[in-house]
Structures are given as structure tokens and as C-alpha cells.
Design brief:
By secondary structure, this protein is α/β, with parallel strands linked by helices. It has six helices and ten strands; from the N terminus they run H-E-E-E-E-E-E-H-E-H-E-E-E-H-H-H.
């Protein structure tokens, strides 16, 4: 499909652990237009978590430990999975490695977590000056959650099934990352610029939390 339609596709997969086929990674794959594939294996939490004997899944989940980024003609892509949105350090690490678009496809209905979930999808965009994209399986009558967020606005949001398209300005992302904050008004942006550079002090992190 990627070759046929000249598109990049992000899709879910279960991939066996080399040397231990009884265990499996929870994965997302990036399929390129030439058919080649990049892969991200979910890193948190540690297994077995909800996958073993679960209502919707039943396999022996093995967490990964790599956070790859993928270069595309449209920008650099990072991928996380579902509730990893609750771990801000993962998105930040991907952004520091150059990711300008963060895909966070998710699973079942969020139930009582819906409000915090949608908040975090936009928050990850704001604090990393990146686009964030999420979608969700709809397995029954429950509502879904599809969002595309820039650091400055929620571009697309829907709880209904469908196909949603947004034009993303990657040059704007790169400009925001290069600029320095200024005290307005008026301000030429709706998010803090330069946060990957000026709002980080690794020495403070290490001093107060040596395991960082």
C-alpha cells in the first residue's frame, strides 16, 4: 500500500523477540514508499503488564529499550505507543534526537482518562515544539480520539471514526526551535520558542536526580 499510493504508513505489529519466540514486542512500524520498514518497540512499562491474559491481548510482552527516529522527506519522525504519552521524558528524548513529528497511536477507549489523555497529546507538542499525532481503535460503541496538534494549536480533534487530514508546517517547527523567547506583547508565536535549548539544564537534573 505504501508503494502503491506513494505514502508513509505507521502501523501496529507484534514482533517476536529474537532467541525467545514465546515473548513478543508491542511494536509500531514505519513503512516507507520503497517498502522498507523502520520499527519501534514499546519501552514502558516493563512486561508483562496488561498484555498477558488480557481482555484484548494475550501474549508475553517484552519491553524494548531503544528510541529510534526516522528521517523522511517530510521531516524527522519519532514513534511512541499509547499510554507512553504519560512519560514526558520519552517524547523529550525523541525531540532531542531530532524528531519533529511524534506519532502516538493508541488502543482502546480511554474511559475516565479521556480528558487527561487529550491534554497530554497537546502538552507533548507544546513542550517539545513538535507535531503530535494520535489515533485509536474503536472496537465497539465507545468513542475514539483522533488528534493532530502543533505546539501552537490543536489542528484536528475528533471522537468519531473517519479519515482526518492536516497540512503541517515543519518549517514553523524548525523556526520555533531556533528562536529565543522574548517578552511581549505582541508575540509572533503561541508557544514558548527554544524550549529544547533554553529550558534545559542537564546539570540540575543530574545534581538532583543522579539516575537521570
Amino acid at each position: 500500500m505504501a508503494k502503491k499510493h506513494d505514502v508513509y504508513i505507521v502501523a501496529g505489529a507484534n514482533c517476536p523477540v529474537p532467541g525467545n519466540p514465546e515473548r513478543g514486542y508491542t511494536s509500531q512500524i514505519l513503512v516507507r514508499t520503497d517498502g522498507s520498514v523502520g520499527r519501534y518497540n514499546r519501552t514502558i512499562p516493563k512486561g508483562p503488564w496488561i498484555y498477558k491474559g488480557g481482555r484484548f491481548w494475550d501474549y508475553d510482552y517484552q519491553e524494548g529499550d531503544d528510541l529510534p527516529v526516522f528521517d523522511t522527506p517530510f521531516g524527522t519522525v519519532g514513534i511512541l505507543i499509547c499510554s507512553e504519552v504519560y512519560a514526558p521524558e520519552l517524547s523529550r528524548l525523541l525531540a532531542l534526537k531530532g524528531a519533529e513529528i511524534l506519532f502516538l497511536p493508541a488502543g482502546i477507549c480511554k474511559y475516565e482518562l479521556h480528558a487527561t489523555w487529550r491534554n497530554l497529546i497537546w502538552s507533548r507538542a507544546i513542550e517539545n515544539l513538535a507535531y503530535t499525532v494520535t489515533c485509536q481503535n474503536i472496537l465497539g460503541a465507545e468513542h475514539g480520539l483522533a488528534m493532530i496538534c502543533s505546539p501552537e494549536e490543536i489542528v484536528v480533534e475528533s471522537t468519531k471514526p473517519g479519515i482526518f487530514i492536516a497540512e503541517c508546517d515543519i518549517d514553523r517547527i524548525r523556526w520555533l526551535r531556533k528562536e529565543k523567547d522574548l517578552y511581549g506583547p505582541p508575540m509572533p508565536w503561541n508557544a514558548k520558542p527554544g524550549v529544547l535549548r533554553d529550558w534545559r539544564r542537564s546539570d540540575v537534573y543530574r545534581k538532583n536526580y543522579p539516575d537521570w
